[in-house]
Amino acid sequence: MRSFVLLLKIQLLGLFSINKTLHADPAKAKRTLAVAALVVIVVVLFAAMYSSGVAQALVQMGLPEAIPLVAVLVGAVAGAVAAFLKTNGVLFGFKDYDLVMSLPVPISSVVLSRVASLYAMSLLFGLLAMVPAFAVYAAHAGVTATGVVCMALSVVLAPLLPLAVAIVLAVLIAAVSARFKHANIVVIVLTLAATLAAVFGSLAFSSQADDMAAMTALGTQLTTQLASAFPPAMWAAAGIVEGDLVQFLAFAVVNLVAAGVVLTLVVRLFVPVNTLLMSSRPRGTFSFDDKGASAKSSTPLRALVIKEARLLVATPIYLMNACIGYVLVFVAAVAVAVGTATGIMSLDLLPPELAPLLGAIAPWGLAFFCSISSTTAASVSLEGSARWLMLTAPVPASTVLGAKAAVNLLVGVPFLVLSALLIAVSLPLDALSIVALFAVPLAACLLATFLGLALDARRPRYDWTTVYEPVKRGMPVFVVVFAGMGFAFVGMAAATLLGAPASLLIALVAGAGSLALYRATVKRGLSV
């Protein structure tokens, strides 16, 4: 038990680099913790507003009794998704596996501590999704003492079954990826499909917001489908709404049994799967044939770009976190083009006073997604323990950093150009607005590219044990996202007041400033 407690403490302190921050420079630690606290506050407020907003919508539709069902389901699934994205890095494929396995502790303690940290993350997401919704339900429906107890227990129990499923999927993916060359591509495609399904589902739900009768019918249909698709959530809702302790007991038993079975399974497979992952090596194609070598020769910049692109494709969480904005902006452009072509989205429905603003706002709608997407914000840190290759390569820092910037531009620019073309031919825009439609997203892409590169090259984080750390929790990533949001909102406000010329001026200044930032980054060079 003592070994489990110590290992769990290490896992929890390492989730957000708390341990490292506490033992770093005191002044820097205070700044880092202050920024982290601000980010946490913003995330909690946003999650609470969104969860309570969904619950309020159900109340307005006359379906308050559906709130516990939706809250339990959303909280459980949200936590499971977060844990799934982190499992292959906490349970499998982590860098310090040899060090951990050399410790004089049982394997069961190692596994239990890591599963407990995943459960803690799932529980945190469950709290953010469920507690505000339960508060709205309690305010609009009569809640008994039994219902309050069931609500509290459901927050604790709900993540267990989805977390067990997520861990099983992660075990399968880890085992398959050790032998299947293109397993990461499959993971990327499935994750992208799930993301787009969630986006289109939200749009379909919100598209009927002006018809309360349609919304009520749709809400009733959806809750019925959710209850049939995931019966444990229905059992939990029965305990909360009706005080049915038999069904709630069934909910608790299913979650606890699933957690126990999966924990036993992971203990048995922990060493074999990790050994398989560590023993698998990519098959090389080395040859002494000079002719073959010369045929594959390329410039240093091209070779480094290919290397960065392969890293991006080989790391699903990196690709999805850094490039999902480009996918969403293209999907939005396609939706606008299809909507206007089929008549589903008619500009005649807009109030007359808002129609002239369309050309001013559209470029900044594209820019928002481009400005929060950056592969460079973690590209230097991802070199990790292999950074000596980057630092000792017989090429200047400008080539190494230029390759990292080029990958983000090669991914982002085609998406934004195609998106701008689709919107330009779909909407009645004047010449300046069409120019802004291309210039503004391009400036946002340059800003995200070179700001992320400058921040990560200045203070890279090489000591990560999982890719999740620099990709999801790195400070450059947070700065790029929030700076991009601020850039888009300021530009949209200026365009609303001053029109397309203001958008072009801001785009020109942002583009020039981004290039100047890149030159300064190259001049400073790489950090050891």
Question: Could you explain the architecture of this structure?
Answer:
With 528 residues, the chain is an all-alpha fold. Helix content is 79%, strand content 0%. Helix 10 (212-229) crosses helix 11. It starts with a helix and ends with a helix. 37% of the residues are buried. The model is unreliable at 205-216 and 281-295 (pLDDT under 50).
Q: What structural keywords apply?
A:
528 residues, 22 helices, globular, mainly alpha, 0% strand
Summarize the structure.
With 528 residues, the chain is mainly alpha-helical. The chain contains 22 helices and no strands.
List the helices and strands and how they pair.
Blueprint: H1 2-15, H2 18-22, H3 26-60, H4 67-90, H5 97-101, H6 107-140, H7 145-157, H8 160-177, H9 183-206, H10 212-229, H11 231-242, H12 245-279, H13 290-295, H14 300-314, H15 316-342, H16 358-371, H17 387-392, H18 397-426, H19 431-458, H20 468-472, H21 475-498, H22 500-524
Helix pairs in contact: 1-6, 3-6, 4-6, 4-8, 4-11, 6-12, 7-11, 7-12, 8-12, 9-15, 10-11, 11-12, 14-18, 15-16, 15-18, 16-18, 16-19, 16-21, 18-19, 19-21, 19-22, 21-22
- Give the SSE order as H and E letters: HHHHHHHHHHHHHHHHHHHHHH
Q: Report low-confidence residues grouped into runs of 5 or more.
A: 205-216, 281-295
Secondary structure: helix percent? over 70%
Query: Overall pLDDT, averaged?
Result: 78
Radius of gyration: 25 Å
Strand share of the residues? under 5%
Number of helices: 22
Distance from first to last alpha carbon: 40 Å
Shape: globular
Structural class: mainly alpha
Largest sheet: none
- The count of strands amounts to 0
